[in-house]
Amino acid sequence: MRPFNKYWAIFKIQLLNVMAYPSELLGRSFSIIIFMLVFASLWRTAYGIAGTDTLQGITLPGMLWYLMIAETIELSRPRVSTTISRQVKTGELAYVLNKPYNFLAYHFSTSFADSLFRMLTNALIGGIVVSLMFGSPPPAWGWPLAAIALIGAWALNFCMMALIGLAAFITEEISSFEWIFQKALFILGGMMIPLEFLPGWLRTVAERLPFAYAMYGPARLFIDPSLEGFYSLLAGQLVWLLVLGGALALAYNRGARYLAVNGG
Amino acid sequence: MLKRELTFLFALWRANLQGAMEFRVSFLLQIFGMVANNLLYFAFWPVFFSHFDDIHGWTLNDMLIVMAIVSFSWGIMTFLFGNFNFISEVIANGRLDYYLSLPRPVLTHLLASRSNVSGLGDIAFGVVAYLLSGQFQPEQILRLLFGVCISGTILLFFMTLVHSLTFWVGNATELGNLGVNALLTFSLYPITIFDNTARFFLIIFVPALLVGSVPAQFVKAFSWQGLVQLSLGALVLTALAITVFTRGLRRYESGSAIQVEV
Q1: How confident is the model at residue B126 (pLDDT cuts 50, 70, 90)?
Q2: Where are the domains of chain A?
């Protein structure tokens, strides 16, 4: 229990740090308004041209609620890769390694605190914008299911971002990996367009990748909640968490050894 | 006078490029990474247009021209004047002292003293997107070059204007982020999805349509309206940004942070 208390304390301290500047945090969340306005204009036009209420089984309001959740996930993703790569590049890591905590667990706690408030404000502001334009959100009984799936999605994103950050052990410069990862989430994760719209073969591939569990799954569950869908999503998230978590632990151990060889 | 300033600018750009090329792997990773990034981002449009023939007259081909212009202009500006997105930070941290202490135009020196290598990747992608669009008539190429210049000028001076508000409101970094998000996001979508009120807003207040859609329409077909809109937009924004920055400079209080920049 003691290790958990330690990381719980780290989480709480970081949360207090984040909440010390609420106006700054709120200011950052205004970007979601811009994105929702663009999505609303595009899809309203698209549904108008198609002359139909549903496209690929999704209604226009459903599409906007889907995109709101996807955008919330994107804007609240942990930015841990930048932090880790900075620590590797500046040598700050050498000072962090001898602290009495696990490096990855420490980043997990601080990143979650960073993201939590951002996730809530983005969902709130995005939700208000979509409500004003397209009416009430999907049934409330599905919200807790989507919230749990959002936490799973966040953890998956954390693993992938931390892996990118650890690439700094080898390449030092990681921004190009961050850009490509983000755009993979946009298309293969279904952030810009639900996976139903992809060509058949690409959809089959995308549905099996972790990007879909980190973005499409929770957003789709929010607009179309079902217990069956929830369990299936959770199972997929757990499998990918095991795979990516294992890869992360391996990459960290090898990276830390590599750093020691070079003298830190 | 102008020759002296241009010589200085070229010297700055050369030094920036040499500095970036010092780290070859990082240099190449950033360029190719940005090309891959833009390619993946653009992948949305073929998927979208596989379900709709056009969006009120706009096709995939038009989106290629929009993407070419925005990538090209963004790439050139971030490579040559890469500090435009960090002006607030420089002002708020008192680092303008350095620029003020040297006998060179402050704004030009400030803007050109940072270079983002990834901009070269944007330029490369812009060329590829344009080649794929198939608009190769000589006058179209001339109009493309004009459109890129105008789009880049508007981008540069809109961001300069927003960041210059730091002189009055304190650190405007978040406002700058919001500004660049709005400008880029709205510029990468077809003009035909916006109603007249939105179009007015996106030309006058956040001139995103002058960065993407309007230059793209101008490349496809010449129109006096497009020429006037683009020229006037660039001129007004340039004058406004320079005036606001210069006025703001009078309010600047030294942070006693004169230091050697390396």
Answers
A1: very high
A2: 2-261
